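Weekly modeling sync, notes
Attendees: AB, CL, MP (scribe)

Item 1: holo prediction request
CL wants a bound-state model with zinc ion before deciding which constructs to order. AB pointed out that an apo prediction alone won't tell us much about the pocket. Agreed to run with the ligand included and paste results into these notes for async review.

Input as submitted:
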Amino acid sequence: MAPMTVAGEEMHALVERLYPLCRSITGDGVRATLEIIGEYVPLQVHEVPTGTQVLDWTVPQEWNIRDAYVADATGRRVVDFAASNLHVLGYSVPVAATVPLTELRAHLHTLPDRPSWVPYRTSYYKPDWGFCLSQETLDSLPDGDYEVRIDSTLADGHLTYAEHVVPGQVADEVIVSCHVCHPSLANDNLAGIAVATFLARALAEQTPWYTYRFLFAPGTIGAITWLARNADRVEKASPGHGGSPGPAEPGAGEGPSTGGRVRHGLVLACAGDRGRLTYKRSRRGDAEIDRVMSHVLSASERPHHITGFTPYGYDERQFCSPGFDLGVGSLSRTPYAGYPEYHTSADNPDFVSPEAMADTLALCREAFAVLDRNRRYVNLSPYGEPQLGRRGLYESLGGRSDAKQAQMAMLWVLNLSDGEHDLLDVAERSGLPFDAVAAAADALRGAGLIKA
Ligand code: ZN
């Protein structure tokens, strides 16, 4: 099998392995998930205590669950957490009671339009309990008393997230983030996790230019916690744009971060369904990652869709909040809520395909290969064309079928290397492949005709 096919199958196997775990924004399901990811890439796991202030938020109590069910008068479990963790409203407080169905209904969630599917629901910040079940199951329940039991714990504990860093040639960073807070949902979190994990492994095969920091964190609160603890990494470079978001949270453990700034980033979500690729631009709209993704998607001739930024979706909401305004876009296939299976039991491992995940992974690799080589150069011989033949830059191409393209690429790079345009601009304006433009720049730099 081709390497990407192998990667697709391996990513799908990872999705299937992570699928049964009961993840939430905190708790042992997240830890178990990170432990498995840690078998693929080494992780630095962070535990942030309940009550820690993170930006405008507070780390909540930790939620863990062992069992939950609704049982009929004969003791038969008609709704059972052991069959699927989606059956319990996420963050349900413990309950043990016997209630008539008429009362129980207020705590039952179904999808009348999709009567055989179980919805995914949570109540993180409002204490509540409930069960999710198919409309068909609900319709089959006779009136009468039901035993309800949720064996959960909400207690002071920790919020858990993890990082994996692929060291680059420079300290400046690219962050790749995915959420790890959804229970048995395959496209909406597990596919992104799998693609991020295999992307990290692929990037480490050669030392990339940028340092790549992978973030596996619960949605919203996890990203906010990471931002609060990495202020020096993400504060705006130029004063007068809102300034620093404040010092790293002193009670948060490891203390302030060190190293490079975040220059670019990508949020990965819904990365495995069979739909076309969708790239959502950063808040800035013309950040380098936006230009790279747009170029690579067009050049690859994949069916795709590019959308503008909206302050909704995944953790691009946090990275692109105005105080940070990072150049972070979001890559998915069919976006959140854009497919009927979204947030239901139908978002299972069959809904995501090895081929789609391999395609998402390949696109990420192509995009980062461009991002890593994109530079702005200055032509050191800008008055008239420099004589390329004298420097061996024409002869070296003799006989090659792509010689004409390589010559054109050199002329374009020389012409547009005015300190304003980067190689991506050259590729866009010339219509030449980025690889040819980057190779021309390497040759011209080697000959001392341009400098970064
Ligand atoms: Zn979701």
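Recorded for review: The two ends are 41 Å apart (CA to CA).
Action items: CL to compare against the apo run; MP to circulate these notes.
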